[in-house]
Design goal:
- The protein is of the alpha+beta class and 229 residues long.
- Helix content is 27%, strand content 38%.
- The strands form two sheets. Strands 2, 3, 4, 5, 6, 7 and 8 form a seven-stranded antiparallel beta sheet that branches.
- Strand 9 and strand 10 form a beta hairpin.
- The chain is elongated, with a radius of gyration of 24 Å.
């Protein structure tokens, strides 16, 4: 902050982390053809994209897919969500707009689990499958659809790839959709608090906010391209 001729005030990552700490941990469900899918967001770390004027939240998460009381898949993920900050002078409120999920990345660590293809075949399809040892696993599965919907069968085929990344790639759009739904019910605004003197001061004279110099910078003039110092 500058004293005398006050031009702006900065909020650092640590200060912003205090504002989001109550959000973690957070859990939501995935819509999958069979079984239950859940994503748990454990913690998040804020970063800034100065050039694009965006705030990013990098989250450590876990995904679990359970079918018939069996965990078919679990993994650690890094999920990055970003948004553009804006300020409404009338309500004295900072808003996050243009929110999007930037990346969903698999972490291959000791926590990762993927039931192998033979386990899936033996567990979810009729006995006798083992007699088809001369057939490929994919061909074998295609023969046993009785009692299982086409959609569920196609979903279970996904696990025959024995690829943790392939399973995640299938679920990425569903994770993205679930996050967007969760964000619709989340308050992505922050009204300047009278009990915090810096926020109270900005509420009186503040005009705009943007990401600069790895900080969230509150300006006393409304401009889209205020030069950095």
């Amino acid at each position: 902050m500058r004293l005398g001729k006050l031009r702006y005030d900065d909020f650092t990552k640590d200060e912003l982390h205090e504002l989001i700490s109550d959000f973690f941990p957070h859990r939501f469900s995935l819509n999958i053809p069979i079984g239950t899918g859940t994503v748990n967001i454990h913690e998040g770390e804020i970063s800034f994209n100065n050039e694009a004027n965006r705030i990013a939240l990098q989250c450590l998460a876990t995904i679990n897919i359970d079918v018939a009381n069996t965990t078919l898949y679990r993994a650690h993920l890094v999920v990055v969500v970003s948004a553009k900050p804006d300020y409404d002078e009338i309500s004295k409120t900072v808003l996050l707009t243009h929110v999007c999920v930037d990346t969903i990345t698999l972490i291959n660590d000791d926590y990762a689990l993927l039931k192998d293809s033979r386990y899936v075949l033996n567990t979810f399809f009729p006995q006798g499958i083992n007699s088809l040892v001369t057939s490929s696993l994919r061909s074998a599965m295609s023969l046993f659809t009785v009692g299982t919907s086409d959609l569920a069968t196609e979903y279970l085929k996904l696990y025959l790839s024995d690829s943790k990344q392939a399973v995640l790639d299938y679920h990425k759009p569903k994770i993205n959709q679930a996050i967007q739904e969760e964000l619709k019910g989340t308050n992505l605004t922050h009204t300047m608090r009278k009990s915090h003197w810096r926020e109270a001061l900005f509420a009186q004279v503040g005009k705009s906010v943007r990401v600069e110099n790895d900080r969230l910078r509150f300006y006393l003039t409304k401009t889209e391209n205020t030069p950095q110092d």
